[in-house]
Amino acid sequence: MTTAQPSVQEQEPDVQPPVALSLRQIVQNDAKKYCTEEEILEILSKIKEKIENHQYPEDFCNLYEVECSFEKYPDSIPKESAIGQWLEKSDHDFFAEPTYTKESYEVEAPASELRRALLMPSMLWRTKDRLDGFKLTVDLPYKLIKIIAKPKFPNIPWSNCTIVFLISKTRMRFFHFCMDYRERNWQERDLLEDVKWQTAEHMLKELEAIWSYLENVQGEFVNGLVTRVKEQLGISKTGTE
To answer: pLDDT for 82-120, tens place per residue?
Structure first.
């Protein structure tokens, strides 16, 4: 004789429906991404410290001295119009805007019997706005970082690493280039070729990503320069001490 096993009814787990957040809570959560002006100034102070305290490799230090400057009112920014053009074409919330200058040009005047009778000129002058750069709309301690590699020997090139940035309440967009100089004489030098900006963007609250970006830029600057020196002197990668 077999005994019937009592049937066991599995109970569904008691799943609580997600608690809907209030509008205030949603706003509060999103606000965590935003920085105050004081926090921005602290980040810029830390960036300056990171740049100045960067540890350069020994083979580079044997050849070069480094001079860093943090410029609030730079005399000029190479190919500045490219950054202005980026601002003009982008849907952004950065505290910056393109700048323009007035440019004059000639156009042919409409032909008419009266103009000919009065001996009026056949060409007319017009003006138009020409995009020439950008400006920050927020007061910051500096807007440009310049790192100059000054050679200790006369047979290797000077070089430049320039970093420019835009800031919003949540993000920081960087533009940078690394390029050697062509010496015009013993005191004067120009950048070798037309500047091509590289750009990257990071959230302001993600500081490790910003520090990593700066390390990578300085590494690119140093490694590229040392490689070019070796190539200039005909030294293979395995032929150096």
So the answer is: 999 999 999 899 999 999 998 766 666 565 554 454 445
Q: What is the CATH number of the domain that holds 204?
A: 3.90.1150
| Cα-based distances in Å from 106 to 85, 120, 124, 130, 189 | 25, 15, 5, 15, 36
Of the candidates 177, 156, 147, the residue with the CA atom closest to the CA atom of residue 226 = 156
Q: What is the pLDDT of residues 6-21, one digit of tens each?
A: 544 555 666 666 678 8
Within-domain flag for 107: no
Total-model pTM = 0.81
